[in-house]
């Protein structure tokens, strides 16, 4: 009987997947409309899109902001999850505090960043108060995206925490304790015993965070720098604010981004398969 | 079909991949009878139950009921882990099958109360499964199954979750309840003693095949084949010529007459259960007690017996513990097997 | 890890990342006169809170509307995901991993790629600027979380329960309602919390599809965050936090009551 799916009596329930046609249909309709718009005059819109001076600059800026945010929040979140895993059980309850940024909307995270890091914010006051030479130059609105990165890291780290912690919890204590007893340092233990089992999960979390930081609109709207600009703001303006004749250009850019997104979906599928196979082997 | 047969099973076969989990099984199940199927793990016992419960479909063969199971009288399986619904009270669990049958509330209430009191768990009606002991959970599961007045009740490993001390009591309780309710039942288990104690007939299932299905005493005293004997307990192995140095009864003598005097035939391996042998102290005896071990009710004697050329060690069970190591004994034997074949 | 060092890191991170920012938010909300570069306000006042009181009608409308469409999204995603999650957890078929990845697409591609096209289509079918349209778009971006949560719930749910219920003669509906629902409920609720949070804190999509006609709390908050009145913005943010916190406490109490009382281990 081992390994045999025993649900043999319930085959032919494929209709149960039908409700998913609602969101999938909506998404395909939305994408379809964008593609149709972009194709209005053949591929002209694509040529025009690629010729737009702002596109590559803004795209690179978005990739950089999303990449750095993802790297930082995944590292901090994973280490934090490991820390909580290694501390006594009561710390799991206390760690709920770390989830507060999850409840904060991006707009409010924007407010927190402004309160702390703007030229008239808390840190600036501290510098002024202790009379640090040269004072404080706010990192916001300088065109290097630091404000956005801070915001995304603040918002995404707890997300990593809640997704990685369950994976960590499934690693039996014995593995880590054995590693420690054999004389491995805490760091080596983490890197050699824990990290390999976390990687597929961490990878899929990274993709989700990366895509969100790359394409979301809310935080750039509050902390947005105008030059370079996050791609979401740029495309929104292009799509809705310009004369309607230029909409195909924006649509063409969206399609290009979508194609990259499809590649990510495939990578995600492979990562998930990796996780599942690993779980099966364990 | 004969009047008192509830169900005929013929050539029932179920494959998992290319392995026969259940291999050409045939037997008749009589009305009101309680059968236990015993066998080592992986013998296909649970698969047999799932086939009878119609949770799986067989690959070939048939299960034919003389009165078809119906919504009013279904085939009900009591799962090994009981599968009590954790969010329902004991009473709601027992009522579950009745509620599926659109029976009036008042009648449901009465039937549930009656069942709970017959099972001695009336005081637990408002408790939840998570608050009960394993033994109590099992009673709830049984009451829930009996509530729907099953034509056939199936029990999957009814003792798996019970402490050793509870098992025999539960077996006798099961027997009493099933007789009281007039229920036909099939249990699968690997607890031999409990199966013997509670069932009308015991079946031995090995490697997907039903090797023997007989009343308990018949299975115990006359196992039908060597592999059944091996499953039941320790077996000693010796060449045919050693029989000349034992006391044999008529049945064994019959077998011995079949052995011709050739060297091959005299060396052919024979087998004997520890239960089928006995020892009697006798200064003239051929055997010598090597070791005495108390294993509960019985005593295990390890006896050295020579066939003239070689010495053999035999395991013998006895009720008497009077013999000491070194005592000379006669060895008696009542049943002997040749390779995969019985007397 | 020496436990002491670990604890120290834990508490300092909690202090720096959570406690201080939240305290600072509270102080700002109660600040009166606060000239730069003082570390603490010179005086405290209830001005921001009085402002909230004076505008309570608009605030309540925004808060109510946000709560409504967020709960709407939770209900919609449950309806969309329940049976598929059940199916996906019980069957394995070729291409399943790929199908499931495709189903997670809304979480894996930027929402702008399909939402802007969808907005134009919604205008065509009269869903733009309506509560219904907002619920739909939010369900679209959030349903992967519900699907994931329910699938986890169903994987933990032992199919033997289902077989047992079938064997006792229960039909599809009785099994779903009496057996599966109570056991998958915790997973559904935790999926629901994520959906609620995503919906409740979303600004752009509500603004895009609701077109300003569907009031939203983030929409109400935005002008204060980008403006200069930090005290009012902080007070509004604190108010904003109250709704999900209240819902989660309710949910937690419900689960405790429903499960612990019955001696059921959950999570």
Report on the architecture of this protein.
Chain A is an all-alpha fold. Chain A has helices spanning 21-38, 44-51, 53-86, 90-94, 100-103, 106-117, 122-130, 146-169, 173-181, 186-215, 218-223, 231-241, 247-281. The longest helix of chain A is centred in the C-terminal third of the chain and has 35 residues, at 247-281. The two termini of chain A are 19 Å apart. Chain B has 343 residues and is α/β, with parallel strands linked by helices. Chain B has two domains: 5-227, 3-Layer(aba) Sandwich (Rossmann fold), CATH 3.40.50; 233-338, OB fold (Dihydrolipoamide Acetyltransferase, E2P), CATH 2.40.50. In chain B, strands 5-6-7-3-8-9 form a six-stranded mixed β-sheet, with helices on both faces. In chain B, strands 11, 13, 14, 15, 16 and 17 form a six-stranded mixed β-sheet that branches. Chain B has a three-stranded antiparallel β-sheet with strand order 2-1-4, with helices on one face. Chain B is elongated, with a radius of gyration of 24 Å. The two termini of chain B are 32 Å apart. The interface between A and C is large, with 94 and 81 residues.
Query: How many alpha or pi helices of chain A?
Result: 13
Which descriptor suits the 3D outline of chain C? globular
CATH topology of the largest domain in chain C: MetI-like fold
User: Low-confidence segments of chain C, ≥5 residues, pLDDT <50?
Assistant: none
Largest sheet of chain A: none
Question: Can you give keywords for this protein?
Answer:
heterotrimer, A: 282 residues, mainly alpha, disordered N terminus, C: 267 residues, MetI-like fold, 2 domains, 12 helices, globular
Give a quick summary of the entry.
The complex is a heterotrimer of chains A (282), B (343) and C (267). Chain A is mostly helical and 282 residues long.
């Amino acid at each position: 009987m081992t390994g045999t799916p025993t649900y043999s009596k319930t085959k032919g329930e494929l209709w149960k997947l039908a409700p998913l046609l609602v969101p999938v249909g909506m998404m395909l309709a939305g994408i379809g409309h964008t593609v149709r718009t972009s194709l209005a005059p053949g591929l002209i819109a694509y040529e025009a899109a690629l010729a737009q001076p702002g596109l590559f600059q803004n795209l690179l800026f978005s990739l950089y902001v999303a990449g750095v945010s993802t790297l930082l929040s995944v590292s901090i979140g994973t280490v934090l999850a490991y820390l909580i895993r290694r501390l006594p059980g009561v710390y799991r309850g206390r760690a709920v505090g770390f989830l507060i940024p999850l409840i904060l909307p991006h707009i409010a995270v924007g407010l927190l960043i402004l309160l702390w890091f703007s030229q008239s914010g808390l840190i600036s006051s501290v510098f002024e108060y202790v009379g640090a030479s040269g004072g404080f130059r706010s990192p916001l609105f300088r065109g290097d995206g630091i404000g956005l990165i801070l915001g995304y890291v603040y918002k995404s780290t707890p997300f990593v925490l809640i997704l990685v912690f369950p994976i960590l919890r499934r690693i039996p204590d014995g593995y880590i304790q054995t590693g420690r007893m054999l004389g491995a340092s805490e760091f080596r233990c983490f890197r050699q015993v824990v990290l390999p089992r976390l990687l597929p999960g961490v990878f899929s979390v990274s993709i989700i965070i990366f895509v969100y930081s790359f394409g979301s609109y809310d935080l750039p709207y509050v902390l947005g720098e105008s030059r370079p600009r996050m791609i979401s703001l740029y495309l929104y303006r292009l799509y809705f604010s310009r004369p309607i004749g230029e909409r195909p250009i924006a649509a063409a850019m969206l399609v290009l981004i979508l194609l990259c997104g499809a590649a990510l979906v495939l990578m995600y599928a492979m990562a998930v398969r990796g996780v599942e196979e690993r779980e099966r082997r364990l | 079909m004969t009047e008192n047969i509830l169900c005929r099973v013929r050539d029932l076969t179920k494959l998992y991949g290319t392995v026969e989990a259940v291999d050409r099984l045939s037997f008749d199940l009589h009305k009101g009878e309680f059968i236990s199927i015993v066998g080592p793990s992986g013998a296909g016992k649970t698969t047999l139950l799932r086939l009878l419960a119609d949770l799986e479909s067989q690959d070939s063969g048939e299960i034919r009921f003389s009165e078809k199971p119906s919504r009013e009288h279904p085939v009900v399986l009591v799962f090994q882990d009981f599968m009590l619904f954790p969010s329902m009270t004991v009473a709601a669990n027992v009522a579950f099958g009745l509620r599926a049958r659109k029976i009036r509330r008042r009648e449901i209430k009465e039937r549930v109360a009656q069942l709970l009191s017959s099972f001695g768990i009336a005081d637990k009606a408002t408790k939840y499964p998570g608050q009960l002991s394993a033994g109590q959970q099992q009673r709830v599961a049984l009451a829930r199954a009996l509530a729907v007045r099953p034509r056939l009740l199936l029990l999957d490993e009814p003792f798996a979750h019970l402490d050793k001390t509870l098992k025999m009591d539960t077996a006798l309780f099961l027997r009493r309840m099933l007789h009281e309710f007039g229920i036909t039942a099939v249990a699968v288990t690997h607890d031999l003693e409990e199966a013997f104690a509670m069932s009308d007939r015991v079946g031995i299932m090995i490697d997907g095949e039903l090797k023997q299905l007989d009343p308990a005493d018949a299975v115990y005293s006359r196992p039908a084949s060597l592999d059944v004997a091996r499953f039941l307990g320790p077996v000693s192995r010796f060449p045919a010529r050693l029989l000349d140095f034992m006391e044999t009864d008529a049945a064994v003598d019959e077998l011995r007459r079949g052995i011709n005097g050739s060297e091959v035939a005299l060396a052919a391996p024979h087998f004997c259960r520890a239960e089928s042998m006995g020892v009697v102290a006798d200064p003239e005896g051929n055997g010598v007690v090597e070791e005495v071990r108390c294993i509960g009710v019985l005593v295990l004697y390890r006896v050295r017996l020579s066939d003239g050329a070689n010495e053999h060690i035999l395991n013998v069970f006895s009720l008497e513990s009077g013999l000491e190591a070194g005592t000379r004994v006669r060895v008696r034997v009542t049943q002997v097997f040749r390779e995969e074949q019985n007397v | 890890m020496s436990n002491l060092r670990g604890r120290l890191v834990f508490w300092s991170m909690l202090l720096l990342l959570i406690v201080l920012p939240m305290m600072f938010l509270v102080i700002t909300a109660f600040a009166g006169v606060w000239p730069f570069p003082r570390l603490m306000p010179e005086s405290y006042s209830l001005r921001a809170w009085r402002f909230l009181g004076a505008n309570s009608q608009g605030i309540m409308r925004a808060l109510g509307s946000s709560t409504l469409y967020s709960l709407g999204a939770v209900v919609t995603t449950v309806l969309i995901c329940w049976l598929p999650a059940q199916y996906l957890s019980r069957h394995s078929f070729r291409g399943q991993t790929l199908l499931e990845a495709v189903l997670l697409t809304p979480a894996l591609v930027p929402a702008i790629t399909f939402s802007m096209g969808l907005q134009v289509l919604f205008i065509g079918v009269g869903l733009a600027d309506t509560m219904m349209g907002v619920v739909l778009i939010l369900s679209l971006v959030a349903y992967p979380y519900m699907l994931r949560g329910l699938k986890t719930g169903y994987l933990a749910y032992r199919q033997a329960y289902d077989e047992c219920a079938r064997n006792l003669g229960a039909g599809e509906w009785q099994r779903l309602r009496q057996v599966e629902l109570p056991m998958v409920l915790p997973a559904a609720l935790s999926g629901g919390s994520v959906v609620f949070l995503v919906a409740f804190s979303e600004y752009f999509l509500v603004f895009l599809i609701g077109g300003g006609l569907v009031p939203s709390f983030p929409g109400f908050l935005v002008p204060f965050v980008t403006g200069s009145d930090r005290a009012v913005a902080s007070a509004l943010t604190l108010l904003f936090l109250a709704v999900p916190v209240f819902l989660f406490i309710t949910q937690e109490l419900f689960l405790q009551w429903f499960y612990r009382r019955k001696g059921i281990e959950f999570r």
